[in-house]
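Wed. Picked up where I left off yesterday with Leucine-rich single-pass membrane protein 1 isoform X2. The coffee machine is broken again, so keeping this brief.
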Amino acid sequence: MNRSSQDTGSRSIPEDRKLYVVDSINDLNRLNLCPAGSQQLFPLEEKIPDVGANSGNGSHSLFLLGLIIVLIVSLALVSFVIFLIVQTGNKMEDVSRRLAAEGKDIDDLKKINSIIVKRLNQLDSEEN
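Structure written out below (tokens, as returned):
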């Protein structure tokens, strides 16, 4: 029933934090960064990431996600506009060809009209 102050202090630290500190020390030993004779327990404040610092990462990831979505939508709109420009150019070429063909037809009709008018004038002059 009587607990030492060390036991109560270690029980106030959550289990996952204890494991995090032990894993970190083991990792250091594996990398030979910490000599075996001078192994020290690091204060928990240095080893455990701050919960408040991680909350900013969520807003950064949301910002990046929003930015990616905006860029994809912009790319889709630009692609659609380019498609419309190409289609409009094709339609304009078709209209230009038709106008050129109709212009030739109009010139042909003017020639035929002038021939008919000449012929009618000749017929009128022969009758008089």
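Quick read: Helices lie at 5-11, 15-30, 44-47, 51-127.
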